## 1
Amino acid sequence: MTGARVRSLAVVRGPARGLLQLMLMALSAAPAAGQMPLTVEVRGGGVYSTPFARGIAVVPAELEAVARDLEVGPRPAPVAELVLAARPGPALVLELRAGASIADVTGAGGGNSWPAGRMTAVHIVGGVRYPLSPLPGADVRVGAGKVLYLSSDVNLLEGSGRTGVLLSGGFGYRLPGPFAAVGVAEAQWHEFAPAPLAEAGAAAGAVTRFLAYLAVPVWGTP
Amino acid sequence: MNLWRGTGSTWRAAVLGTALITACDSATVPALPGPYDFRLAVYGTDGRARQRTFHWDRGAVVPVFVVDEEPGADELRRALEGAVRAWRSAAVFGEVRLRETTDLGEARAVLRWHDAAGVLSTPMTCLGPVTGAASTLGCLNAPRDALRTWPRRDGEPSQVIYRVVIRRTDDQELLDRLVIHEMGHVLGILSHSPDPSDIMWAGPDLPPAPTARDRSTLRSLYQTPVDLPVESASPGQ
């Protein structure tokens, strides 16, 4: 690792620093780009997200005298990704991936739920995956990137603040079969602070998404 | 296992990152100031008043038609755009929102200057006097071309239509605030806040946007059962 890289790491703290260290290690050991085997993968699966926001509605005492928990968030939805992976060494894979999911958003509270619109979540992540040596065919993968929410009819996703820094971590396992498919379980965490939440007086929040998908190489050397 | 050796700090950072991922969660909207009473006093045939609640179906989008009569149609339309934004931000759980429509047939609220003739000059017994700077009148149409005073005392099921009438003003800022206030009524806040700092206060000097108490009231309203006799609380989306 070069001195410049070490100095640049000094300004990064927390888990992001660990991720950056992994990536820099990978780059330090990487052969020239032309010598790295490249693979293109497609991934398809599902995503479950924690709610965007939680709150309370206090129904006046003369009516029902109850406080009801409310929440709004996306329903489980399909997710698809396109991945460009490079293998700089026998043990390490670098990947750049972009994905999207389209989900219905619902509000819920007091035993009821209601449609709150539809949104598209787009993410782009750079990451690494490394074999779990005791488990043949298994790997651990971490990454960092950005997420962007798009919607024309979800109140919470109006205005600014629909992007956030995203951190991801997960595991992959090579499945038996003819397609070199890999099953992946992943968690993604990202900031969430859209303008309507700020206007409602809420502190900036975070959302965790859990993804499970199959990755299938469609080009190059797996 | 050599998993934790050699690059131990890196692995620990990665695992810590994964742990952080699963530990954090959504934003919490803070407890708001207590809501004010949003119900309407409805007088029955026995002359007694009962407090009644009406709101649109949760998740509804309520179409609002602006009477396109000059002068001042653009100003009204601009004020409505502001009201749509203001209440959209207030309804963070997606309970309801407004949108402008150019189709009078689908409109569930009509916004107009008080002296406009326009397309709604058909007999409407719900017109009534315009009190103050602006008024919102609830009407029923059953059949659709014969609007009646709302709420009806006979309890017949009907569609709901609001008619919002604004007195002429050249003050765009005042107009913006008046329309936000009246659209609060259209969303179902059928009474007024006792606090002069709220947008649903009945007096002058309205604030520029719904306050925390206004938002709390809207949130509570949409968690309260409807007990007005109407055919449907769906705006027809």
## 2
Amino acid sequence: MEKNWPLWEIFVRSKNGLEHRHFGSLHAADAEMALENARDVYTRRSEGVSIWVVESKDITASNPENNGELFEPAHDKVYRHPTFYTLPDEIKHM
Amino acid sequence: MSEAQLKNLEEIFEQRIANDEKIEPKDWMPEKYRKTHIRQISQHAHSEIVGMLPEGNWITRAPSLRRKVALLAKVQDEAGHGLYLYSACETLGISREELYEQLHSGKAKYSSIFNYPTVSWADMGAVGWLVDGAAIINQVPLCNTSYGPYARAMIRVCKEESFHQRQGFEIMMKLCNGAPEQKEMAQDALNRWWWPSLMMLGPTDAESVHTEQSMKWKLKRKTNDELRQQFIDQTVPQADILGLTIPDPDLKWNEETGHYDFGEIDWDEFWQVVKGHGPCNKERMNARVGAWEEGTWVRDAAMSYAEKKKVRKISKAV
């Protein structure tokens, strides 16, 4: 038959209070197996308390070639940052 | 793309690496960068996978439960390292199936050290101490390499590798403090693993064809000869602590250079093993290919089951 196992992206929460972070990927027949394999591949030393698996083909990623139009407009919007605004030194708690 | 445009892209790319920026999978990269990385990362992954075989040989015969769980955990780590590296390699646009095919057909290489046999329990000590020791020296600089997924995989690998070397040294220590026969076993293992471990760090700089380009891409931070010298300098005092003799009559501390001088390496042997004529090349490949082929029905069954479950879920929802 020979149908290959799809690729899954693995996200692990290392402890409660922290977000899930991308740890890597692996192949598995289905989501359940991806979870089980992720436990063995990415958390052999108590690296996690929660795992998410997402099939890689379901992720839509931005293209670095478009980074200019996507991210550069933010560069000249310094007024979004608190340091843009000048206040007298006597002002406290601001 | 015109040649001028390509050249411009290449220059920007080289500049990014020179500035210590990381390259990520979807970034533009020169074809040669991609190919070189596929070659090196896959070779590294294959070495982890084949590297399980010489040690797997001793799991059922480990002398105590403590040694058995440690060895089992080490071999499992190697499987894990292989998997981190394969998936890092796949981000460069090659499939897992292609990677396996290259290993199984002999097109891709793996570290020649795993083509030596592990004939006694002391070999588990020597492999951990020397082979993993040399691997660490090779791998630590790679945590900083320019390709993001490879660097991230290497950070994880290096964190786990230190236990491998320490458990090996502990085995050696126990044998060296045991009966004379046990100490002899340890010496015999050192005698057989010393030279192959030095070869593991790769051909001499004069013979190494990829060094210059690899240094530029930070795939390599030190040359093979520098790494080898570092390995020797740190390992000789460890052998002294064990009370073992390194099998090199020319090995001598050089006050002037601050390093050990050492004897001639038998590079003919190295190339023989690389070309497939080592003591266990055939055995290793047969074991690996056999495991893959005999596992086909399991992989197929898992896939059919997954598909069946998916269909059921859909028909339930309707």
